[in-house]
Task: structure prediction
Amino acid sequence: MEKPSSEIHHVMHARRHMHSTFYSRLIVLTLVFSVIPLIVVGWSIYVYYSRFSSDRLTEYFRDQAQYHRRLIELFLRERTSDLELMAYSHSLKSLQKQENLRTIFGVMNRGEPFFEDLGVQNDQGKHLAYVGPFDLMDKDYSGTFWFRELMERGVYISDMFLGYRGIPHIIVGVTWPEEDRKWILRATLFTDPFRALVEDVKMGKTGEIYLVNRQGVLQTTPRFGGGILDKAPLPMELFTEKDGVLVLDPMQYDNYSSPRQIVAYAWLSDPKWMLVARQDYDEAFRQVNHANRAMLLFLHISIVAILVVAIISIRHMIRVIRKRDEKERQLNMQLVQASKLASLGELAAGVAHEINNPLSIILAGNQVIRDCCEEPTKLDEDFKSMLLETLSQMDGQVLRCNTITHNLLRFARRSASVMDDVDINRCLEEVIALMEKRAKSSGISLERDFDASLSPFLSDPSQLQQVFVNLISNAIDAHEGKPYGTIRIATRATVPGVEISVSDTGMGIPEGNLERIFDPFFTTKPVGKGTGLGLSISYSIIQNLGGDIEVESTEGKGTKFTIRLPFLSPEKLMDGQYERKVKK
Ligand code: ADP
Result:
């Protein structure tokens, strides 16, 4: 049943090891079951959301490009339809007449005027009739690019060009057959209404829409950089025949130096223009990036919070467990001590009892011999006195043995306690008065630090004094080899009782001895000086009074014994409950 102290040490080491593995296991578990899933979920959301939002944004730009392409196409288609309607619904004869053409021109421009001028031409590029602000009647158009294209295709819309008048404009023209020849109805468009369709579109701070022809020449004026008929700042070779969305990055394309931008483009069928809807990448993705950054921040904060909370709570848990274990260890040690004392107590009582009998017999024998000596026999006087002296020496030794057995019996708690009201400060004062002389002669001063508010309580004053004598006497012995020192005796009220401490500045107790000093017969003092019973008797006295005794010591610096006594009800004490506890 008893646990040797070295075994307890091993157990403590094992426990400490167990605590640290427990700690790391809990941390790993927290990581595996909360942080890692959080990272996986957070990362997936992040990736999914980024992809989703960038798809959405791409879609938006593509829609913008398609929508505006259709607007422009419709606008231009309507203009050529106007011309076709007029060409096919009037005869050449009527169209050739200047007044008729003027009337037609007026009808076409009713409402919002889209046409700047209108002319009827023959297949040689000569005007037959012309309505408009310029004097173009005599101009020969047979050499112009649009004339050739128009004659070939039948319907034609030109790119933006300067022409004879030196202002950017677009020519739309249709041909119709009459009298076995081809005739031309041609008009110039006001470019403003058409340009407004794209130039007025604003997307954020940096977004814009513009048109370029196949060669990358601007057909409208962009919001930023470049004017109409300038070269657009676009690497045209990157745009395929199919509509699409590109991210232009100066890092990726050598011949592109503008900031990174997202560009959606859509090709018009006729004329072959490309409609561009673009915005700086950073602006377009700002909100997405904000959201993503907030997400990542939240993720990081959550991870850190989980870790911190886990670490703090696990640490706390381990601290609590450690405290419990420590308490358990102390309880174990006390148990070991108590059972040791109990068995030794039984033994000592038995031995004392057994010795007492022979001692009484020896004493009785002594008396018989003494009586014989007194009889008037012829005994040599010298021999007689020697015999009597020896007898009295024997008496002395027998009495000494008696005292020892008495002590042993007391240790075994066979001697009855006498309960009384104890004023602990006075009780200590009496002991100090007794010890002061011995202390002074060793150069040691006794200091008192008493709590004056302590009220008397029921206990065994003489046993307590025995304990204090033991402690103070040990403290004085601990100064051996030191010329001076201090022993401080303090009392304090605690919630359920009183605390008495004896601290000294002596040699201290080596760690290895700490667990053994309460063992009976453990002593480091020379034979004849120490019995090793002082502390074990003190220990059992305090235990019987319901208290406990504790030691702290630093080798070379000093030792402090602390006794805690609870105020117990008289019934409990009289009950002998504490006595029984030790005897078990
Ligand atoms: P003894 O005093 O007869 O040796 P104790 O049971 O009173 O027996 O003490 C046991 C041992 O504990 C002592 O021999 C000593 O080594 C150690 N000891 C007790 N009190 C002190 C103290 N105040 N300072 C240093 N050692 C002490």
Residues 470, 474-475, 478, 504, 506-507, 509, 517, 522-525, 530-532, 534-536, 559 surround adenosine-5'-diphosphate (CB under 6 Å).
